[in-house]
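Why this split exists: single-chain examples teach little about how molecules sit against one another. For that reason, every record in the complexes split bundles all components of an assembly together and asks for one structure covering all of them. Below is a record exactly as it appears in the raw files.
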Amino acid sequence: MKSAVKRIGVLTSGGDAPGMNAAIRSVVRASMHMGIECLGIRRGFNGLITGDITSMDFVQTSGLIGRGGTVLYTARSEEFKTDEGRKKAANTCKLFGLEGIVGIGGDGTYRGLLEFSNQEGVAVVGVPGTIDNDIACTEYTIGYDTACNTALEAIDRLKDTMQSHERCSVVEVMGRHAGHLALYVGVACGATAVLIPEKKIDFERDVVEPIRAARLAGRTHFMVIVAEGVGSSYDVAAKIKEYTGLDPRVTVLGHVQRGGSPSARDRMEATYMGYNAVELLAQGKTNRVVAMQKGAYVDYDINEALAMKKGIDERVYTVLRALIGAEDKLNI
Amino acid sequence: MKSAVKRIGVLTSGGDAPGMNAAIRSVVRASMHMGIECLGIRRGFNGLITGDITSMDFVQTSGLIGRGGTVLYTARSEEFKTDEGRKKAANTCKLFGLEGIVGIGGDGTYRGLLEFSNQEGVAVVGVPGTIDNDIACTEYTIGYDTACNTALEAIDRLKDTMQSHERCSVVEVMGRHAGHLALYVGVACGATAVLIPEKKIDFERDVVEPIRAARLAGRTHFMVIVAEGVGSSYDVAAKIKEYTGLDPRVTVLGHVQRGGSPSARDRMEATYMGYNAVELLAQGKTNRVVAMQKGAYVDYDINEALAMKKGIDERVYTVLRALIGAEDKLNI
Amino acid sequence: MKSAVKRIGVLTSGGDAPGMNAAIRSVVRASMHMGIECLGIRRGFNGLITGDITSMDFVQTSGLIGRGGTVLYTARSEEFKTDEGRKKAANTCKLFGLEGIVGIGGDGTYRGLLEFSNQEGVAVVGVPGTIDNDIACTEYTIGYDTACNTALEAIDRLKDTMQSHERCSVVEVMGRHAGHLALYVGVACGATAVLIPEKKIDFERDVVEPIRAARLAGRTHFMVIVAEGVGSSYDVAAKIKEYTGLDPRVTVLGHVQRGGSPSARDRMEATYMGYNAVELLAQGKTNRVVAMQKGAYVDYDINEALAMKKGIDERVYTVLRALIGAEDKLNI
Amino acid sequence: MKSAVKRIGVLTSGGDAPGMNAAIRSVVRASMHMGIECLGIRRGFNGLITGDITSMDFVQTSGLIGRGGTVLYTARSEEFKTDEGRKKAANTCKLFGLEGIVGIGGDGTYRGLLEFSNQEGVAVVGVPGTIDNDIACTEYTIGYDTACNTALEAIDRLKDTMQSHERCSVVEVMGRHAGHLALYVGVACGATAVLIPEKKIDFERDVVEPIRAARLAGRTHFMVIVAEGVGSSYDVAAKIKEYTGLDPRVTVLGHVQRGGSPSARDRMEATYMGYNAVELLAQGKTNRVVAMQKGAYVDYDINEALAMKKGIDERVYTVLRALIGAEDKLNI
């Protein structure tokens, strides 16, 4: 196959996620395999504006698959949202001979790519990379699995000490607009309650009753998971104290969830998706985003992708509540 | 909903896998939720024969979601393969009032369940639990993700020391009949070569050439992953020495891959699948196995499931080779 | 050797620490070895007051060595600080035939043991268990090593994302009165600055200058470690912003540092110290605390131990600062 | 203080160990702090012979503290054992202006440094780096703590699956001439038996009896730790089968124990010892090795250090056996 592009660039944009380096490695090596030269653009779209660009080859990408963070750095760019900023970026592309851009990030990254492509005619493909798993067009985003496991490991440690002291723990996990991470982690740690922004919260039903039921069944420590977007986890703790007499300890896991060596799954997804992104550019396609649907790798038009909606898995929520409240039926 | 069964048993059979305890917890708690009593059968089908049965409740399953191994123990049972053995097991069911059995394990477990159901009329549902991901009817088996990450972590450590000494490493991972684990881990660690039983091996093409190409590109250490079923990894190492002059070190990861606290994914899949299994029994169904297809949870007739075939993901194999041999195209 | 006591009790008191379970196991098994019966007292001194006591044997302590938290639970007891409370506890000892008590905890635990022994004549030995390593008479306290590694692992993750975004990170680690943990972790993560309560802080010299020096040397991300006792880490972050223009992210590691499976070192120290504690009771000694001095296991009178003072390792502080400011000398 | 040397080199030699990179970083930065320039010598003494030398600065050593392996590579050098080889190395030192060498490794490294210094008059200081902790003059060697924890983590996983299957496990850990690692790990995992080269083995007393005692006390799975130097762990397994009827599984942990990000302790010791080594050179000293004795950092003449003897901690061995055989006294 003859590639439609000769030289492309790869960048990471928005919040970083474990596996971004694995995706960069895959994009660079897939390019080499398809006879394309691939340059690294640093600091997201800013690097495209300022010409902050570096060469990438086989040895430079050696060992990259297992490293957290992104060696290309990432940043948000206000200037790229302006026509003028994008004009500068187009000049950089001309200067460096870049005919295509692979952008690894979230919805904001896709919007940037799309406007750039529409205005300046450079081919673009997006790759989903965010720990929040909140991109509508895809079932999976790079970084999600590692973040879930990192949060889970911290919560498992907390459980040890909560159990020793017979306490309640309120843990805030990342997710400003989406509760995927909180819900997944909540199921995985056997939480007594999980609060997410997608669900209107009835405090009595969603927090107090499960705690009471678990207490009645003989449990003496309780784990409550709160997604960042729900509001202050300190308020949640205060309310638990008011309703139950327990004196919960609050832990905000924070940016720790964004780091660490990527899990096997994140490395695999990043490798696969990075490869697919380059293939699309090689085939002369543009304005696409690679994604996973029904467990398979697909791609969408960016416009189409941005118009999609994604909810939480309702069945997971149901299963979670069933297993928490299990004692309702038999023991009482 | 009124459940079709009042009392069931849960057992783990065959090789153990991380997440089996999470599945047991889910089966017990889902039962409670649906008004069913669930007993624990110990040591696989042997416990059904000997009446080695224990009660399970909310507090006993508390904390179980994060523990490796299986608290119900597991074993293979020769006696259960005989009519007589299954007769004894049927008596135990009568004695304890067990109307249904959830069996967590692999194909051998399903066959045992099926023959028991056909001969003795007890309702049965299988749940896929094995680190090998080699059950044909399902895209995912409980334990696979943890095993991949455990193997990967060990290999990442090996890479450190191989890099210091500029050596080649041959790592044997589990998989007597299937190379899923080896292939997944091989992609995730950036292996130079991966040997699996599903692929006829051309040693020159599959091992020697990738090593030569990587060497030419400046690499000084090499990782070769071998699935158990391919044959002796010591023979592979000897052949590498003969062809390349390198003096590889062999590591057999062994049973370590079977243990450890389950990953977030294994806990989620185990929780989901355990719940679904009980739901099937509650609905009066039998001879079913829960599974994942196209990223969604489904269930199959056991006969149908056992007749299915499953190959490795050819695209993964292609991507792996492309990224390894990337330098062929540009650098040489 | 004939033991001076026939039956003893073991309890954990104060904040929990990884390795407390390993110490409990060692106390129980060492007792069995020396022909002593050992009972478990639950919820610290409260269990002694209320008779919340459980038997402990070989199988019950099997697997305990690797589990975080304390299976005997821990609590602070206000009642035990009163004569009346201790009277009740003495009655419990009479009732259960307890001639000696091993108390695992910190200075508060030792004080409780001492007053109890002095007032009621029960033999007592203390074992140092706290993640803070702030017990004056001993170089090492059970839980310290695990806590250091847990904090370090979290900080390593943070470094990944701080590096991607070229940010400054302020991390608050435990240590209300002591900076041992902060200093150790600060050296181990290569922190740019470490703030501890033992050192009067000159913000310019201790924080601003190291950041400026590292910046000048080409560094773009910075890690500042703050011990809990220094004050609000949010204030530290605000001050860094004011002085350097950087916009630091704050992470409070919190109770996560208290949990998790104990490290090899904590298991070893716990095993050793637990054994030594029982040996002292068997030899008819009382009012002792086991400890480590100059790398060797010793024991002290509790009064003597409580009168000791312990500072931070000044040499560590010097080395830390030397390595941070290394560029001063050559590069500038 | 005015340094006695202006330019020095640092190298790693022999088997690699986690923390070697932390030691390199410390040597480089301590040098900068003391006004000394420090170059990196690659591939051990070979790099000194061939002039395989690289510059090292603040940014190059940034992040190094947490990385496994050694960025300077390591190797054994036959040529350096000859007068001629050392002559070449002395020429390299003249060419690059190297007045001192810090060598990180074991006894073999020290011997090489000593002969080089004696013959060619270059100042030398040794730093103990090996996972085996088998250097006589020091209580601690860099890499030991990480190796213990890595082995322990693998064994904890094995315990999960051994428990599920009620099996015996024989685990071979590193240590060709020394059983420190095996003994430490054996205590930390709660092994039923530990075989080390320092102790003459009475199979009945040391393996069979503890297994029988544990069995009698109700235990159904057993962990036997064997140091590499004892002989084939497969033979040990065969003998266990013969004597007890159990069918043990063998796991050889191998080179995995040498890799991985160093633990907090190894980073601290490496930082401290690296700093001390440079200080000795700056003070005009030579033929020294830094070490830990009685928990404090000291240094010795290399000749003196090589003449020392080091046994295992007999008390640890006694405690281990006491806790294993605990049930002898009470239960039987």
